[in-house]
Input
Amino acid sequence: MNQKSAELTTPVRNFSVQLSPTPRGARLARLLAAEQLRSWGLPQDPARQLVAELAANAAEHGRVPGRDFRLTLYVVGDFLRIEVTDTRGERLPCPQAPAPDAESGRGLLLVEALAHRWGVVEGRFPRKTVWAELSCTATEYTP
Output
């Protein structure tokens, strides 16, 4: 019997790093993601803003002392998936309209506005992964 295997016509790329759930870790997530996107020849924006918001949320709301968060980037074809996994699985994100004079609380509203789609996956307790996807085109996409 002769069977053909499914083949991807474009490369699959991924990057993953574990970071401390602190403002410094969130900043490093944004910087590392920007550098990785640059090395892949992909546009940095709005992906950089999405990473910044998701990582800041992991550092602020997903923080558990002694437990890191993970940033993962996947590129398959023309889609970029950004995932941030933290260890506060019992605290699922929910976009809310902040008070007009509030200085914070707009992060998920920005994620909704910038991403083509986003969501949350409950992982093996106590983890959760907040993800966002972008359709993007490469400027220098070389395998």
